[in-house]
Specification:
heterodimer; A: about 400 residues; alpha+beta; five-stranded antiparallel β-sheet; 8 helices; B: about 230 residues; mainly alpha; two-stranded antiparallel ribbon; 11 helices; 2 strands; globular; disordered C terminus
């Protein structure tokens, strides 16, 4: 009994003494360690902003900043460092970007990401220095790197957000809206009576001077896009937005043209050799064709055991003049892989076909990572050209 | 065991009873921290410091610590010193701290330290224990440094982080990897075996006789060891 009590006392007192020794050491080293850590954190910031001096964290809640911004540090030299989280090829790409006091990029680097190291990761490393010295105004002029489009495009837009953040911190009010939001806002201000619901008009006729027409879903009128200008018009084509006489004439002609456009179905049985993918064709009074055709993208030809394809075609509507020039192109429906092939439903993809002929329609930018979708789409457009030739009786 | 002189206590650890190359203790940090001479030296010195301190303290307390709580007491003392060394390294040599990472904390379970506490410090005077700790620590550091030198110079064409341009095109990168470490380790053990041929301690002189479980162990080797002890 005496022996075990002695054991306990000895062990407890050794533990106590050792604990006291550790506590003493900790009280000496803890402040030094904390200081080192702060210095290291500072060093990371200094890598992207070498002249930064010392840094202090900015209270982000005081500003309206782009949604990608996760932390902002103000440097003692007047510049700042912005930390952003964005999505490149995969999500969770954390970027740190330094901004000089004069509003140019001083440096940027990826802190962590799940990009493919040998592709996106490597490309981003090459890409970062090319952004140095750019401002919010001219950063878009830096070409993204092909083969790593998603990574470098996301990188560039993140750095742009950082530049905007610096401007906002400096007191400027910056447009942080996305392209879609800008379009919607422009449409709303051009035709407020449409209550914000618009459908893009599908062109059947070539209309000079008009880039796009949006028709109000509630029949309140249309909005014509003339370059940068958005003109609201009523259903008869009278301009409601203030504009020059030439512009008023242009939009009036445009609306009269689209109102007058009459089309009739083409009797497909009257022709031989039409591709089986053709669903229907219409011919306008002026001799243009609207072709609706199926494109076999990843949904049909792709897929294996692990990635079952949807089994659905991409539905493409394309209007072509009798002499073989595309007027307008639209993806009606698709069931391609989300986040990859479904980019074929974006205007940035199908809009590329506008104005193309059979000679140059293949020269469009493919959807990154979706070769099958792009190829299927191109093949469908090629077949649409064939249809027009058959309708027109041209021997191919 | 016959009593060695003080000098031979110190020298024992360096070649004759070198902890890594003869006693084959502390293999894990030996393989893990010898890719760089700076890291290996730091690991060796950190271990040396812990070894001397724990040997001295354990030797001081050897009459106070009851036999049945001997091991927990040793572990607490060793863990305490390791934590203190770790905090000091973290504060004053942060580069080394980053390089050694978890292996610094793992000195706690390094067999060399507990082994010396058990085999030597628990039975010898303070002075001799300190000398033993110093010798073993130097032996460990030398073994680590020579291994790291071979691996770094031939595997990464640098020495303690300083590049050797002449070897730049002749790197044997395999040596920096774990299997390369095993290979170098094996070669060094063989080399020390040749040097100490015939003079190295017989197995029983440092295993069964010093084994704390000798009196309950039924193995014939142990029984023999017990008799000799």
């Amino acid at each position: 009994m005496k022996k075990s009590i002695r054991s306990i006392i000895v062990l407890v007192s050794i533990c106590a003494v050792v604990s006291i020794l550790m506590a003493l050491t900790n009280s000496v080293t803890a402040p030094i360690i904390a200081e080192n850590d702060a210095k290291n954190a500072n060093a990371a910031l200094l890598q992207v902003l070498p002249d930064g001096g010392s840094f202090e964290t900015v209270d982000m809640s005081a500003y309206t900043l782009p949604s990608t911004v996760t932390a902002v540090y103000r440097a003692s030299n007047g510049g700042c460092v912005v930390q952003l989280t964005t999505s490149g090829y995969s999500s969770g790409m954390v970027i740190m970007c330094g901004i000089n006091p004069d509003g140019t990029v001083s440096g940027s680097k990826i802190l962590s990401s799940s990009e493919t190291p040998s592709i996106g990761g490597e490309a981003a490393e090459r890409f970062a220095p090319t952004l140095n010295g750019k401002t919010a105004g001219d950063i878009e002029t830096v070409e993204i790197i092909s083969g790593a489009t998603k990574t470098t495009a996301a990188y560039r837009s993140a750095v742009k957000d950082a530049l905007n953040t610096a401007l906002i911190l400096g007191g400027a009010s910056i447009d942080t809206r996305t392209e879609e939001e800008i379009l919607q806002d422009n449409l709303d201000s051009a035709l407020p009576t449409a209550q914000g619901k618009f459908t893009k008009h599908f062109f059947v006729e070539v209309i000079e001077g008009i880039d796009a027409i949006y028709t109000a879903d509630n029949n309140a009128g249309h909005v014509c896009v003339l370059g940068e200008k958005f003109v609201g018009v009523d259903n008869e084509g009278n301009a409601l937005t203030e504009c020059t006489e030439d512009e008023a004439q242009t939009v009036k002609t445009a609306i009269e043209t689209i109102n007058a456009t009459a089309t009739e179905l083409v009797d497909l049985s009257a022709y031989e050799g039409l591709p089986s993918q053709l669903i229907q064709a219409q011919k306008s009074a002026t001799g243009n064709y609207i072709i609706e055709i199926k494109a076999a993208g990843y949904g049909i030809v792709g897929g294996d055991e692990y990635h079952p394809a949807s089994g659905e075609y991409i539905m493409v509507r394309v209007s072509i003049t009798a002499d073989g020039r595309i007027i307008d192109c639209l993806t009606v429906s698709q069931a391609e892989t989300e986040g990859i092939g479904d980019a074929c439903a974006k205007e940035s993809f199908y809009g590329q076909f506008d104005g193309k002929t059979e000679a140059d329609y293949t020269e469009i930018d493919a959807i990154s990572g979706a070769t099958l979708t792009t190829n299927g789409y191109k093949q469908a457009i090629g077949r649409a050209f064939d249809c027009v030739k058959i309708f027109e009786g041209v021997n191919s | 065991m016959k009593k060695d002189g003080n000098l031979s206590v110190l020298l024992n650890g360096i070649i004759k009873e070198n902890p890594t190359l003869v006693l084959i203790l502390g293999t894990c940090p030996t393989l893990a921290t010898t890719t760089n001479v700076f890291g290996a030296f730091g690991m060796g010195v950190a271990t040396l410091a812990v070894l001397i301190c724990s040997n001295i303290l354990i030797s001081l307390l050897r009459r106070v610590i009851p036999d049945n709580v001997r091991i927990p007491c040793y572990i607490v003392i060793i863990a305490g010193f390791v934590t203190i060394v770790q905090m000091l390294v973290h504060a004053f040599i942060p580069d080394l701290y980053d390089m050694l990472g978890v292996y610094l904390a793992l000195i706690v379970v390094n067999c060399i330290i507990l082994g010396r506490a058990e085999m030597f410090a628990g039975k010898n005077s303070v002075g001799r224990s300190a000398l033993d700790g110093l010798g073993m620590g130097i032996g460990f550091t030398l073994a680590l440094c020579s291994m790291a030198a071979i691996r770094e110079v031939f595997g990464a064409a640098s020495f303690a982080g300083i590049a050797i341009p002449a070897l730049e095109n002749y790197k044997i990168e395999f040596l920096v990897k774990a299997p390369g470490g095993m290979l170098v380790y094996g070669l060094l053990i063989a080399l020390v075996g040749i040097i100490t041929a015939g003079k190295a301690p017989k197995k029983k002189s440092f295993s069964c006789a010093g084994c704390p479980g000798a009196h309950i162990c039924g193995s014939s080797d142990c029984a023999k060891g017990k008799e000799e002890a």
